[in-house]
Automatic annotation (TrEMBL):
UniProt name for this protein: Endonuclease YncB, thermonuclease family
Record carries keyword Kinase: no
UniProt keyword Lipid biosynthesis present: no
UniProt-listed SUPFAM superfamilies: Staphylococcal nuclease
Every TNase-like domain range: 38-152
C-alpha cells in the first residue's frame, strides 16, 4: 500500500473515532449539573450549598435593606427564604453562571416545592422577565392577593439597585 493511501486510512480512522467519542459524550455534556444539600441563605434570592453560591433562576428578590412603603421587604425576603429552606435538602438544577461567577439554578425543596416560585408567590420577589417568564403566574397571584410587597407598593429590585449605585 502506498504512503498516501495509508495516511488517508489513518486519518479516516482518527476522524471517525473522534466523531464517535463526541456523539457518545454529547448526552452527558447536555445534562445540567445538579447541586444538592442544605443551604445557607445570603439574601432573598442567593444561597450557598456546598460552598457554591447559587442565584435562584428566574426571580429577583428585594434587596436586603430595601423597604416597600413601611414594609421591610428585603429583610422579609431573606427571612422567608430561610424559612423555606430550613432543615430541608435542596436540589438545584444549574441553568447558567452569572457575571459574578455564581451558579444560576432552579431549586426545589425535599418536599418538591419550587423555591423561586414560592418566593414570587409570597410577594417577596418578582419574576425576572429578562431571563424567564416561568413565574409570571405566581407574580399575578401575589399581586391580585396583595401579598408581601404587593400590599404596600414598591420599586422593583432592579430599579432599587440602580438607584443605590
Amino acid at each position: 500500500m502506498s504512503r498516501s493511501v495509508t495516511f488517508c486510512l489513518t486519518l479516516s480512522v482518527l476522524t471517525l473515532s473522534a466523531l464517535a467519542l463526541s456523539v457518545l459524550a454529547a448526552p452527558v455534556l447536555a445534562r445540567p449539573a445538579i447541586i444538592s444539600g442544605m443551604a445557607y441563605v445570603i439574601d432573598g434570592d442567593t444561597l450557598v450549598i456546598r460552598k457554591r453560591h447559587i442565584r435562584l433562576f428566574g426571580i429577583d428578590a428585594f434587596e436586603r435593606n430595601q423597604t416597600c412603603g413601611r414594609f421591610r421587604c428585603g429583610t422579609e425576603a431573606r427571612k422567608a427564604l430561610r424559612d423555606l429552606t430550613k432543615g430541608r435538602t435542596l436540589t438545584c438544577e444549574t441553568k447558567a453562571i452569572d457575571t459574578y461567577g455564581r451558579t444560576v439554578a432552579a431549586c426545589k425543596t425535599s418536599d418538591g416545592r419550587d423555591v423561586g416560585g414560592e418566593m414570587v408567590r409570597r410577594g417577596l420577589a418578582v419574576a425576572y422577565r429578562s431571563f424567564s417568564t416561568q413565574y409570571l403566574g405566581d407574580e399575578s397571584y401575589a399581586k391580585s392577593h396583595h401579598l408581601g410587597a404587593w400590599g404596600y407598593g414598591f420599586e422593583s429590585p432592579l430599579q432599587y439597585r440602580r438607584k443605590e449605585r
